[in-house]
Amino acid sequence: MTEQHGPRETARQYRPHALRDYALIADGERAAVVGPHGEYVWMCAPRWDSGAVFAQLVGGSGMYAVSPAGRYVWGGYYEPGSLIWRSRWVTEDGVVECREALAFPGDPHRAVVLRRITAHDAAARLRIVLEPRAEYGAAGLDGVHRDDSGTWQLASGDLRMRWSGASAARHDRGTLEFELTLKPGDTHDLVLEIADRPLDGPPVDPARAWRDTEDAWHREVPRLPGTLAEGDARMSYAVMRGLTSTSGGMVAAATTSLPERAEEGRNYDYRYVWIRDQCYAGQAVAAAGGHGLLDDAVRFVSARLLADGPKLSPAYTVDGGPVPEQRRLDLAGYPGGFDLVGNQVRSQFQLDAFGESLLLLSAAARHGRLDDDGLRAMDAAARAIAQRRHEPDAGIWELHDTHWTHSTLICAAGLRSAAAALSGSPAADRRSAGWTALADALVTDAERRGLHPSGRWQRANDDASLDAALLLPALRGALPADDPRTVRTLRAFLDELTEDHFAYRFRHDDRPLAEAEGAFVLCGFVVALAEHQQGRTASAYRWFERNRAACGPAGLYSEEYDVVQREMRGNLPQAFVHALMLESSARLATSWGAPH
Question: Counting runs of H as helices and runs of E as strands, what totals does the chain give?
Fold first, then answer.
């Protein structure tokens, strides 16, 4: 007889883990976070910013677990060039694996969760539990019944679900559970379908779904020969592809409210498309090769520039809609965090988004991948910079409004890149000349408001301190690598905001750097690029390798890395970190300035 467990007992068994212990599967439309016990503790359905149907990660209800019944130690790995994850456990008897994936590419209205369990060299006994709870756990389970074929039909909130391969399960107080025993070499498939529409037609055939998913990942994630770390570079590409919707929009991360520092209030919802992050991803792909994600980024960013022009928002939903206002869910949150959804970014102005857009569109033009919409979007971005260049903005780190030096200089970089990409005809040359003149004026503005008496760049007209973002404009061509301001800024940053080849964004206060916040992994890769630009190859490689290791066993990066506790902090996985890892892996493999 199968032992039964109620929801509270199950929740106690699957307690939260450090972020390094989690893996992620994704299909472009949503993702699931997988724990070391084979537990899915986070999954929104049907889309990225929908309510979670598995919400234990932030203290809600809902979970789906496949775990060995006895004692075991866990491990796992991704199949190369994909987000197909293999949960792997060594039990007292042998090795058992569960192959995990969301059927790929995803359908915006229906998620298909594939789980294939295999006992390798000994018999295996597993406990399987399904507790779906829509709307972050607020909705109960309704209409639960098993049809004549042994397939379970159930509903929660507005979602309809179908679970195949679980005919032996029993239902008790909203929990479906059973034990599965496999002989050596045996395989068992579970398929969970979750949709916001009726599930008509027959259940998904697992063999075909697995085959189609494997083929799709092989098509979508290119080989990346010539990069420093091809396996990890392909992994970063796969992560970004898994976070990219059919709209072309790439969410910044799959999760919400995972804390950057415990109980300090820095918890955000990153299940939306940041224009800046999208541009970083596109530029990384342009540098590394494999242009699918470059085309997606150009398509999404161009559409938003053409629709909104100078009123471009820093972030959108994957469908191009406004990001919802921030609100609380009345949940416990991940330990040390809160329970926020929505994001206050919708009310901000970020000037640098226009510069980043021009850098993205220019990269596409250099690769011959910019269409008429892209050209018109380029014009729109340049006009917006001319119109709004004197306004204070929230900056790259989304702080208070001021005249951030980085924002001004990255717009200059974008204009210079665009001017270079479109030169060639008399009309293009006239336009390019105007953009170059505007770039020169922006650099003059930055020098007037943001040049420190020491000759380095400072954060803003009202803030003389340093910032990692000030390394980016020279990398993107706002100024030459040998410009004294470039050289002095990098030297000062290395002296003041780095420790043991980890980089920090800026100094918050008088506390030691590691007490104020974690090292910013993105900034570590930026330093690797800056050192490479200066010709210091050995130092660049050291920065690259140090920050490449700031991940968990699954190879996923979060926003920050706590160098004291060697733990990941923030939402998971952080797309812009994977973007800079990919770009660094490509650029450091050749001399600076070599064509990509």
Answer: 15, 25
DSSP code of residue 573: S
Residue 65 pairs with which residues in a beta bridge? 39, 129
55 three-class SS: coil
Mean pLDDT, range 336-360, rounded to an integer: 94
Q: Report the pLDDT value the prediction gives residue 8, as an integer from 0 to 100.
A: 46
What's the rounded Cα separation, in Å, for the pair 456 and 268?
A: 32
106 secondary structure, DSSP code: P
Closest CA to 32 of 22, 43, 23, 21: 43
Residues 6+ apart with CB under 8 A from 496: 466, 507
| Cα–Cα distance for residue pair 5/25, rounded to 1 Å | 27
d(CA 146, CA 143): 10
| Strands 110-119 vs 52-54: parallel, antiparallel or unpaired | unpaired
| Cβ-based burial of 306 (10 A; exposed 0-12, middle 13-18, buried ≥19) | middle
Strand, coil or helix: what is 212? helix
Residue 485, judged by CB atoms within 10 A of its CB (0-12, 13-18, 19+), counts as: buried
User: Strand order in 519-520's β-sheet?
Assistant: 519-520, 560-562, 567-569
Q: How many residues does the chain have?
A: 596
Residue 267 sits at the vertex; the CA angle it makes with 340 and 332, to the nearest 5 degrees, is 55
| Assessment of whether the complete model's pTM goes beyond 0.90 | yes
- SS3 state at 463: strand
In the structure, what pLDDT confidence band is assigned to residue 262 with cuts at 50, 70 and 90? Answer: low
The model's pLDDT over 424-462, given as tens digits with 9 standing for 90+, comes to: 767 678 889 999 999 999 999 999 999 999 999 999 999
3-state secondary structure of 96: strand
Inter-residue contact 164 to 191 (CB < 8 Å): yes
List residues bridging with 63 in a β-sheet: 131
20 CB-side CA count, 13 A: 12
Name the one residue in this structure whose structure tokens are 């369990």: 117
Beta-ladder partners of 315? 274
Q: Assess contact for 114 and 101: CB atoms under 8 A.
A: yes
The residues that bridge with 559 in the sheet, in sequence order, are none
Amino acid identity, position 462:
D
- The whole-angstrom separation of Cα 416 and Cα 439 is 6
Would you say 183 and 125 are in contact if contact means Cβ atoms under 8 Å apart? Answer: no
Strand 63-68 versus strand 52-54 pairing type: unpaired
Helices (H), 401-452: 405-422, 426-450
